[in-house]
From TrEMBL:
It holds the Pfam family Integrase_1. It comes from the Bacteria. It comes from Deferribacter desulfuricans (strain DSM 14783 / JCM 11476 / NBRC 101012 / SSM1). One of its GO terms (molecular function) is DNA binding. GO terms for biological process: DNA integration; DNA recombination. The keyword Transferase does not apply. This is Core-binding (CB) domain-containing protein. The keyword DNA-binding applies. Keywords: DNA integration, DNA recombination, DNA-binding. Residues 11-102 form the Core-binding (CB) domain. The lineage of its organism: Bacteria, Pseudomonadati, Deferribacterota, Deferribacteres, Deferribacterales.
Length: 334
């Protein structure tokens, strides 16, 4: 019978000494190699939690936080910051920590997250369907109407911005609705970006401007002076609220909605706009077969189809805030 322990954790597990103490407790065999790998994994998760989630104690982690961590690992693999084998080792070691504390709800599957060892596991569609998106945003609207709590409407606007502009959760939450360049149809993304690197994303339709105008009017009407986060809340508090809403929604309707899926939808829609074809992960033409279909449809050479695909992926990569087109394989398939 598994002994359930209280997962209190060290206050700062980014520190090697603190991570080592926890690893020593978890790796009961005392194997030095396993301890070192576990220390690396613990520090990796703690650094992500501290910098991206503003969370100092891992005891506050929820399943949605771990989904975001998996996304973070996928991005690092795609950017060639770490190998996929390294990512799989991190997940394995972190799962051992959670198993020790009886937190099966926080475990990740390397295979399901596209991070298993061996063949690169790109072709998983993680986008949010129109039906699920509408179901979740309708849920938020109803909560706002029923309770009068403006946080639900602010969160709904944030979700729409993620889908419309391909923003990360943190980017949409911290956006101040400034930096809208109507002349060039571009939107500045400055706060909450990966590596604090600002970028511009395109405003592709009137619906984009309508959303931004509504968001600005909402902020003014309800006294949101900084961003879509209420003035009396820190980002970490807002994130906990948002993830709690998702958890309640998923449990109530037996769904699997996650914020980062909106970015996948954005990437796939952009690929369709730029190439005229559904992304491989959506069309089912995978393992390069989509290039042959593209070539035959347009009456161009296979090399020209590859160039069209490459150029589209490059644009999408930049719009998502990445610097390598390889990472688009996780969004679009290959």
């Amino acid at each position: 019978m598994k002994v359930k322990r209280n997962f209190i954790g060290e206050k700062n597990l980014t520190r090697k000494v603190a991570a080592y103490r926890l690893a020593m407790e978890v790796v009961r065999s005392g194997n030095e190699g396993s301890i070192k790998k576990t220390v690396t994994a613990i520090r990796k998760l703690a650094k992500f939690a501290k910098e991206e989630l503003e969370m100092k104690n891992l005891s506050k982690l929820q399943s949605e936080h771990m989904k975001a961590f998996a996304e973070h690992l996928r991005n690092e693999v795609g950017d060639a910051d770490i190998s996929k084998a390294h990512a799989a080792n991190i997940i394995s070691c972190i799962n051992r920590v959670f198993d020790h504390y009886g937190r099966d709800d926080l475990k990740l599957s390397a295979k399901e997250e596209g991070l298993n060892r061996g063949k690169r596991y790109y072709n998983i569609d993680r986008s949010v369907s129109n039906q699920l998106h509408e179901q979740f945003t309708d849920y938020l609207s109803q909560k706002f109407i029923q309770t009068g709590d403006t946080r639900y409407e602010a969160l709904r606007i944030q979700v729409e911005m993620e889908r419309m502009f391909g923003l990360r959760f943190k980017e949409s939450a911290l956006h101040d609705l400034k930096g809208i360049h109507r002349k060039d149809d571009m939107l500045d993304v400055v706060k909450g970006t990966k590596g604090s690197q600002p970028r511009e994303v395109p405003i592709l339709s009137d619906k984009g401007y309508e959303l931004l105008n509504y968001a600005k009017d909402f902020k003014n009407e309800y006294g949101f002076n900084r961003s879509l986060i209420p003035d009396d809340m820190k980002f970490s508090q807002w994130q906990n609220f948002a993830y709690g809403v998702i958890r309640d929604f998923n449990e109530r309707f037996d769904c699997d909605y996650h914020f980062h899926g909106e970015r996948h939808t954005y990437a796939q829609e952009r690929y369709l706009e730029l190439t005229g074809f559904d992304a491989p992960v959506r069309s089912g033409f995978i393992n390069g077969s989509y290039l042959q279909v593209m070539s035959e449809y347009y009456g161009i050479t296979l090399e020209e189809a590859k160039e069209l695909d490459k150029e589209a992926r490059k644009i999408i990569s930049e719009e998502l805030g990445h610097h390598r087109i390889d990472v688009t394989c996780f969004y679009l398939g290959k």
